[in-house]
Design brief:
alpha/beta; Rossmann fold; 3 domains; five-stranded parallel β-sheet; four-stranded parallel β-sheet; about 40% helix; binds iron/sulfur cluster
Length: about 375
């Protein structure tokens, strides 16, 4: 174990924080952990079981693979079916089911779909195989968008003619507004994502407090980080405060990372994006700016997938809105498992259903 992180996994510190939470959280609160990595940490370390009865932890829409809607997955599948196209993407996207197929099913059917560890790897494929057109499928939030932005710029610098990016990137803050505007969703506080906040800082979240009176805390991914975040939220609620606080000072500064934000804003522009379970949220997508049209896969490999359809019985959309917990889905552990996933929340390494299946006993009796 790394010495730096040891203190963030210290059982004594964790016990002290749990006691402080129990003492502070005297009124019922529904706290949403927005980020899939937080969901994993909460399930892995059994933190849900340490909460007092007053606190309900809800999972949110912070797994980028899970919130990618069927029409977008269908489009990627359709691109992979085009002649001479190599579809390159991160491993997490391979098994995610769309309406009719997945990228791994397409690969099994002979399409040229390749897993890469960085968008730069896909540039190398383009250089090595000039007779093919490489589409890099970019999925992720503000955390991964800067790397893809820089890869688009690098493709331009190298003068690549056979590479383009399909941007399915999304930005987080306005999705939280959509949740707060949803009458079915009840949230009294947000545990905000550490990685995304490293890039964007605190300002984009200020409306949570100023417009909705909802407190939030940005925190990290070790058990003590998460417990500290819950305690700080409980304190805000107990004191009648609503602010954006940072419990992850080793990773996040209030101003974020302006260089990364500039990389995003100078390469992409906001567009509407469809989120699984939530619907279209204006301005939360990232489309390539017109000066990078030559690298926009939607223009370079135009194609139209069939009409999308929903996955029967899957409640991923409700899980991602925090309306149901993963193990409340009828298919959880009964037909839908990490070995045989039905919905994306069971596929992704950050998916709520995968987290609860892997680390808890729910659905296994
Ligand atoms: Fe979807 Fe499977 Fe989770 Fe149900 S258990 S919500 S089908 S991923």
């Amino acid at each position: 174990m790394s010495g730096i992180l040891e203190g963030f996994r210290d059982p004594e510190v964790a016990r002290t924080l749990v006691a402080a939470i129990v003492e502070t959280a005297t009124v019922p609160a529904k706290l949403m952990e927005v980020c899939g990595t937080h969901t994993m940490a909460i399930a892995k370390h059994g933190l849900r079981g340490l909460m007092p009865e007053t606190i309900t932890l809800l999972s949110g829409p912070g797994c980028p693979v899970c919130v990618t809607a069927n029409p977008d997955i269908d489009l990627a599948v359709e691109m992979a079916r085009q002649p001479n196209v190599v579809l390159a993407t991160f491993g997490d996207m391979m098994k995610v089911p769309g309406s009719y197929s997945s990228l791994s099913a397409e690969k099994a059917d002979g399409r040229d779909v390749r897993v890469v560890y960085s968008p730069l790897d896909s540039l190398a494929i383009a250089e090595a195989e000039p007779d093919k057109h490489i589409v890099f499928l970019g999925v992720g939030f503000e955390t991964t968008a800067p790397t893809v932005a820089l890869s688009i710029r690098e493709a331009a610098r190298r003068g690549l003619k056979n590479w383009s990016a399909l941007s399915l990137h999304k930005t987080v803050p306005e999705a939280l507004r959509a949740l707060l505007n949803d009458p079915e969703v009840q949230i009294t506080g947000f545990i905000l994502p550490g990685h995304v906040s490293t890039i964007i800082g605190t300002k984009p979240y200020e409306f949570l407090a100023s417009e909705y009176g909802v407190p939030s805390v940005i925190t990290g991914f070790e058990p003590v980080d998460v417990l500290q975040g819950v305690w700080m939220l409980s304190k805000q609620l107990a004191e009648g405060r609503a602010e954006v606080e940072i419990a992850y000072g080793r990773g996040v500064h209030a101003e974020g990372n302006p260089t990364a934000v500039t990389a995003i804003e100078s390469t992409f522009e906001p567009c509407d994006a469809e989120w699984r379970g939530i619907g279209v949220i204006p301005g939360t997508g990232l489309a390539l700016r017109s000066e990078f049209a030559a690298y926009d896969a939607r223009l370079r490999v135009p194609c139209t997938p069939p009409e999308p359809r929903e996955i029967r019985g899957c409640q991923c959309g409700d899980v991602l809105r925090g309306v149901v917990l993963p193990f409340e889905c009828k298919l959880f552990g009964r037909g839908c498992t990490p070995e045989h996933p039905i919905g994306p929340c069971m596929v992704s390494s950050e998916g709520s259903c995968a987290a609860y299946y892997r680390y808890t006993d729910y659905g296994k009796s």
